[in-house]
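Thread: Newbie trying to understand structure tokens

Hi all, I'm a second-year student working on a class project, and my supervisor (Dr. K.) asked me to get a predicted structure for one chain before our next meeting. I've only ever worked with sequences, so writing a 3D structure as a token string is new to me. If someone could post the tokens and maybe explain what I'm looking at, I'd be very grateful. Here's the chain:
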Amino acid sequence: MDVPDTIICVDCGGTAHLLSYPRPDEPWKPGDIVAYRCADCLDRWDLVIDDDEEDQPDPTY
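---
Reply by user tm_fold:
Sure, no problem. This is what the structure looks like when written as tokens:
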């Protein structure tokens, strides 16, 4: 599972850069926490990785 290198800061709209990196022997998985730091306001964001499949609508409906 890939996580973005940057995200948009919710507080100021600046660019927040990834602080966390996966372990070499284990890729990211749902439930892992990744941290970002905004280059503009210096806020830190800790985000939980979601399961991509849970976010998809059920095609049977």
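A couple of things are worth pointing out once you decode it. The first strand starts at residue 6 and ends at 8. The helical segments are 52-55. Feel free to ask follow-ups in this thread.
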